[in-house]
Design brief:
Strand order of the largest sheet: 1-10-9-8-7-4-3-2
Structural class: alpha/beta
Oligomer: single chain
Radius of gyration: 18 Å
CATH topology: TIM Barrel
Distance between the termini: 15 Å
Number of strands: 10
Number of domains: 1
Mean pLDDT: 94
Low-confidence stretches: none
Number of helices: 11
CATH architecture: Alpha-Beta Barrel
Length: 296
């Protein structure tokens, strides 16, 4: 197993999304925290295209830092839009994300399942900022049909996986509180419907623990479908993203399961919404390294 810094660090340092100038800056800051690998994230079209245009310079910058980009995550909610025109446009942007992953020699490209097409009365999940401890109050609109939403998600993920697979990549999806796929069993159902070994899971410890999951059991359920791990902690009630060890996740059981499943991929330190960001990333890095070594 290897360790990387998640893009949540950049978002919490510089906003959602960081400017290109801040993107260069934050990559250096990740390296100074001790990480030699990190993920990149492109938020919606403008940020995606800016990153794509700067990709050669960004890669030179990362190479100079000694920083490996191990995953690219485009944030494209229109991938699950019920409007076919908007889905096609989002799929074109996803193709750029695949090109980015290939260009940086990252093994994976990542998507989310995004919010359902319902009316969010107050806060929309991860709309303008990645925020935790939110209550989502919704109204179901007239004409809403869950089967249509689900089949749209399945068809879109199949299309994305095909694009990624043809480029030699694996694609993973992160279950998040408040989105279409928010727990282990929903992700397993999606994997079964997509039915492609190039598609797998981001085991997001913070989100799944807040969903009252037994994470060691999630590892057993997902098994070889786990392509990537996001490591953060909370109290099991709110989806806070604290340094491992600051909540109630059973990290020993989780890492024992990962070793049993012969997981050899990246474990991303994924902390956000805290006042002592750098300190918790250093703490998280040290704890995850000890867990990987079996000495924690």
């Amino acid at each position: 197993m290897q360790i990387n810094c998640c893009w949540l660090y950049a978002i919490n340092r510089y906003g959602y999304p960081p400017s290109m100038a801040d993107t260069y800056k934050v990559l250096g800051e990740m390296r100074s925290l001790g990480f030699d690998a990190a993920e990149l994230e492109g938020v919606h079209e403008d940020n995606m295209r800016a990153m794509y245009a700067a990709r050669a310079d960004l890669k030179r910058h990362c190479d100079d830092l000694g920083l490996t980009i191990m995953n690219f995550c485009p944030v494209l909610p229109d991938l699950v839009s019920l409007d076919e025109r908007r889905r096609r446009a989002a799929l074109d942007l996803f193709r750029l994300a695949v090109e980015m992953s290939v260009f940086f020699k990252a093994p994976t490209v990542q998507v989310d399942s995004y919010a359902a097409p319902v009316e969010f009365v107050t806060h929309r999940p991860y709309g303008q900022m990645v925020e935790f401890k939110r209550q989502f109050d919704v109204r179901i609109p007239d004409g809403f049909v869950w089967d249509r939403v689900w089949h749209t998600l399945v068809d879109t993920i199949r299309a994305c996986v095909a694009v990624a697979r043809d480029a030699g990549l694996r694609m993973c999806l992160e279950p998040r509180v408040g989105e279409l796929v928010s727990n282990t069993d929903a992700l397993l159902r999606l994997c079964d419907h997509v039915d492609d070994p190039s598609f797998g899971a981001v085991l997001d410890c913070g989100h799944l623990h807040a969903q009252k999951e037994i994470l060691a059991l999630s590892v057993e359920k997902l098994g070889p479908r786990i392509f990537y791990v996001h490591a953060s902690d909370n109290d099991g009630r709110d989806n806070e993203h604290l340094a491992p060890g600051r909540g109630t996740v059973d990290w020993q059981a989780l890492f024992a399961g990962l070793r049993r499943q012969k997981f050899t991929g990246y474990v991303g330190v994924d902390i956000g919404g805290v006042s002592d960001l750098d300190a918790q990333y250093r703490e998280g890095f040290a704890i995850v390294r000890r867990l990987i070594e079996g000495s924690a």
